[in-house]
């Protein structure tokens, strides 16, 4: 199953633009992998009730892999300067059926968005470029943020939204509350 992921930097002035020619996500950064860890540390000792106690959650950096493209110089610059980017959205699409095109430049595949992740007060935490002996030069970059919101739409076997749509979760790291403000 093909998956498409687009990162859209909504900074003032729109400095970080990728090479995407997708009709829905023109000039966004196309990535082919994403990794993110949210961890709930627990105390080393049990509570008086016998269970572990929870602590403040830890949100790791969001890590993306992509081909080197037009966004590379601006990602490196934003990382070097510690630039705060107001808003970033990440769109996840799943391919299905091959019946029609929804934003696909090739027009051969139907896709449906099933996950959107919105971030606030984002910094580019790292950028690592790699040129291997084989393949296209690639890059891994990571983002840190102060607030995150996840929105999921369940898709049925035909790739259409089913009964569970707009399921949301959020976390504000600065306030340590389930909010996206």
Automatic annotation (TrEMBL):
InterPro entries: Hcp1-lik_sf, HSI-I_assembly_Hcp1, T6SS_Hcp. Gene3D superfamilies: Hcp1-like. Signal peptide: none annotated. SUPFAM superfamilies: Hcp1-like (SSF141452). This is Type VI secretion system tube protein Hcp. It comes from Roseateles flavus.
